[in-house]
Amino acid sequence: MEVRPSALALTPLLLFLALFFGAGLYFTAQGEAMGFYQLRAPVAILPALGLGAWLAHRRGLPAGEILLRGMGDPNIMMMCLIFLLAGAFAYVSKAIGAVDAVVALGIGALPPGLILPGLFVLAALISLAIGTSMGTIAAVVPIALGVADASGLDRVVVLGAVLGGAMFGDNLSIISDTTIAATRSQGAEMRDKFRENFRIALPAALATMVLLAFLGDSAPVTADVSASPWLALPYALVLVLALLGLDVLVVLAIGLALSAGFGLALGNDYDVVQFAGDVWIGFEGMVEILLLSLLIGGLGALMKASGGLEWLAQVIARFARGHRGRRTGEFSIAALSATADVFTANNTVAILVSGGVAKDIASRHGISPPRAASVLDIFACVPQGLLPYGAQILLAASLASVSPVALSGAVYYCWILAVVAIGFMAWPRRAPTPPRAAPGDGT
What would the pLDDT profile of 43-74 be if each residue is shown by its tens digit? Predict the structure, then answer.
């Protein structure tokens, strides 16, 4: 069945954001320290789901079936499994003393000013190697939390450094879903897209590292010298396995098993019963993010089926057709990609949804396929690293028990990347000089 574009189909997400952010701002203004936790996101999204289902039903669509299909999407299910295993691994590792061991072994030797840039680089390298920001966050955040607590650094700033590094690698990695989707949709070669992307991402990464070095002026890391260095081995193996490209679910499962083994062998009075209890506590910490991910998946499916994303793509394409020039085309692709990500909360899906329209805009405005793929990928990743209801921030915030809204403001790399990318698009570029005619060729 052909999807008829409809602006009204986008209103359910606007309703959710109005309820969630409106309640958070209201309670914060009333002096509530945890204002954004008074109305939980999985509850705030329920009216939006009702509105989305009603709009789909009005169009003669099977709203219940669409909702369940969206919630049961394989990508959503994969995220939920990652959330559960990451929560269990993080809690068990902390319970057996693995975080203290990591801090005692080496990170504590870093000067305070280099701790934040060091975590950013670590996350960037892992994400670049494994092609997934989610896997990187699950592997690095538990270590980063130990460093934050030991050094006195603000947890939000530390997590922002890790998230920024994870998004850097996710945006550039040749095995990332976003990179593959962007290059295929634009007909670009992977190496050419990487070169275009790297010219923008590298200055943003360097500027982020300089900023993080200034923010890292705190007390030196104090470590628990009584922690056995062997307890750090599960973390080390998890990082190595991740760098080798092993599936993130397998990596987290191995890490959880190793943490249990080392805890039973080296932990003080740590037994199987306590391990089972810690796994469950880790699961419980992920319930909110798991529920929200399922419901966001269903809401996105309802809006897409009702024509919301189709309407959005048509509006931006119509604007691009009415204005000529390379800059107009690139800014149109950027707006299309970023807006699609805001409404889907999934950068890969956003690229897949907007890729066809972006390719048409690129061909009309003389934009090369690698350049179009680079802009498409960057502006899907920038909002994804900043959305308080996006999977990356939700996972990190759940692991650290911090506000996702506060965390979105601390992912400095994504903010800087947006500024650098806009600067690159706005900067005038000279057209290539035509070759000189050979002597005797003139008339």
Answer: 988 999 999 999 999 999 999 999 999 999 88
Q: 222 pLDDT band (50/70/90 cuts)?
A: low
DSSP-derived secondary structure for 131-197 = --HHHHHHHHHHHHHHHHHHHT--HHHHHHHHHHHHHHHHHH-TT-HHHHHHHHHHT--HHHHHHHH
Residues 172 and 104 in one domain: yes
Distance separating alpha carbons of residues 134 and 394, to the nearest angstrom: 10
Average pLDDT, the chain: 81
Which structural domain, as residue segments, surrounds residue 17?
7-71
* 364 and 283 part of one domain: no
**Among the listed residues 92, 394, 78, the one whose alpha carbon sits nearest the alpha carbon of residue 249:** 78
Provide the CB-side half-sphere exposure for 174 (13 A, CA): 9
Tell which residue, 200, 203, 196, has the closest CA to residue 368: 196
For residues 83 and 65, state if they share a domain. Answer: no
**Cα–Cα distance list, 254 to 238, 250, 259 (Å):** 8, 6, 9
| Single-letter amino acid code for the residue at 435 | P
* Dist CA 310 CA 281 (whole Å): 42
